[in-house]
Amino acid sequence: MAPLDAVSQDHLTEFNRTIAKWTRLSGSRDEREAAAYVEDRLRSFGYAAQTIVHDAYISLPRAASLRVTKPEPRDLPCITHSMGIPTAGRAVSAELVYAGKGTPEEYAKAGAAGKMALVEGRATPAHAVNATRAGVLGIICISGRHAHEMCCSPIWGNPAESTKDALPRVHLLSVHKADGEALRALCARGRVDVQFTAEVETGWTKTPIVTGDLAAGHPDADGTFVLFSGHLDGWYLGAMDNGSANAAMLEVARILAPRRDSFRRGLRLAFWSGHSHGRYSSSAWYADANWSELAERCVCHVNVDSLGAIDADAFATNSMPETAPLGVWAVKEAAGAALDAKRVGRNSDQSFLGAGIPSLLGSVSHQADGSLGWWWHTPHDTLDKIDPARLVRDTKIFVLAISRLLEDPVVPLDYGAAAGDLKRSLDELQTAGRDFDLGPARSAAGRLDELCARLARASAGVTGGAPARHINACLRRVGRALIPATYTSTGPYAHDPALETPFLPRLAALRRLAALPADGDEAKFLRVDLVRGRNAVTAAIEEACRHVEACLERLG
Fold first, then answer.
1. Alpha-carbon distance 78 to 65, whole Å?
2. Comparing C-alpha atoms, which of 366, 363, 331, 330 is closest to residue 344?
3. pTM of the predicted model, to two decimals?
């Protein structure tokens, strides 16, 4: 295990300060310079480093303006958003109506079609989707204390011929919270007219991915690797998002390099572009371009984002039941705190679920209100928002978690916890779905729960050699079977939309089915999809059972 006192505040500060001197827009010269710096640092630590350049569909918001023309002239500061529709160098005039949270029902009630709609909350892909479907001209989002930059494409990664029609077809603006509240008050009193402009540059461009590999040196090394990733691009100077996380990546790389002889798995770092301006374009492209290698050899994806902020002492992160115990342990050891290990969602370059790769971490330390700070995605994300001591603390979490993933004889993945979680989730869906039979899937999940308990007992005390190889191969295969079927709706070879997706998405409609007339068309249509979803989930669980059974047989 790497010594925690090796984490250097001086190194972290140097890395963070250097990266935060560049405005790292995806595909920009500044981003290329930052990429060159990162590659140079990795090489100096002994990693096989390279910069991969690929095509990405990038959208960079530029200048925007907003003027109230009725009932009283007033100029308001605003921003436009990545993937929004530009106004093509002209000012657009429209009536403004208030549409609450921007739900389809609220758009209809406000009569928002063809008009600008004022909506609550920061700009999101869901807002863009609802507004496009409602036929509004555009939306003005009431953002935070300062308007937050956002990428609003609902497409995960680069648009394809099959997905490009889902791009937003509305103008997208955001205003500071105080100005948004003033607009809302105006709308409550009577008709409001606005005039606005929005410049957005969208198209294909070349973007960089920096990778660094350090091969395992232990005699039991099996050719697998841990993927440790974070985005290099960002908004403005991005000292926290994602400069502090990039600094932590470099420091983890520096500390672990001399320990490669203890690695049973290799370490691969990846610094993405296109996170902020291409909706995870680089990580999605990398997942597609390297699918076979990732599916065969990647043990776990550890993501990192926005570390070490001032006052950031609330710990929560992305995880899965199989990875959560490792994250909880690392936070307890490094920070003496409890971690809220939430189920991984559609965020944080989670482009590897289709390949069945378990995921852990991302952002870990938050403000008391759960946010990353009022300065997130604003020009105020500068070095004064970083607390060097907290950055050291957060970096230690990653040192601990990654060290165990690299060095433990049996990879620290708890598929017993995953099986139990799956069983409970299916039981809850069965209760919600009433007369739709999930019996085959529930039975298989119960069997997997029992088998994983046996595997855990068989794994206790294993220190290496053939038993460890058999168990680790089994754990990979179980993940490859379960994760695509339980976390995605599109399966292994595509990417779900960049919208919130529930666990067991192919069965999520069960909750809606219960409220529908059983003999109605809508219920019967839903049942067709639900039967297919049940089959896919059941088959995946049964496959996982076969892998565990085979492993137990080998172990004797």
1. 6
2. 363
3. 0.96
Q: Which residue has the tokens 């929560």?
A: 316
Distance CA 501, CA 156 (A): 12
Beta strands in 409-492 (DSSP E): none
Place of tokens 């002492």: 313
Compute the distance between CA of residue 341 and CA of residue 321 in angstroms, rounded to an integer: 8
pLDDT for position 454: 97
User: Which amino acid belongs to residue 532?
Assistant: R
The two beta strands, 365-366 and 138-142, are unpaired
| Tokens at 95, concatenated | 């009536």
Beta strands in 84-224 (DSSP E): 92-98, 116-120, 138-142, 171-175, 192-214
- Give the max Cα distance, the chain: 81
Q: Does 77 score more than 80 pLDDT?
A: yes
What pLDDT is attached to residue 213? 98
Question: For 408, which DSSP code?
Answer: -
User: Mean per-residue pLDDT for 152-180?
Assistant: 97
For 431, counting Cβ atoms within 10 Å of its Cβ (0-12 exposed, 13-18 middle, 19+ buried), the class is exposed
List all residues 6 or more positions away from 265 whose beta carbon is below 8 Å from its beta carbon.
216, 221, 222, 224, 225, 226, 299, 405, 406, 411
pLDDT band at 522 (very low <50, low <70, confident <90, very high): very high
- CA–CA gap between residue 343 and residue 341 (Å, rounded): 7
Q: Considering only CA atoms, which of 275, 241, 242, 381 is closest in space to residue 26?
A: 275
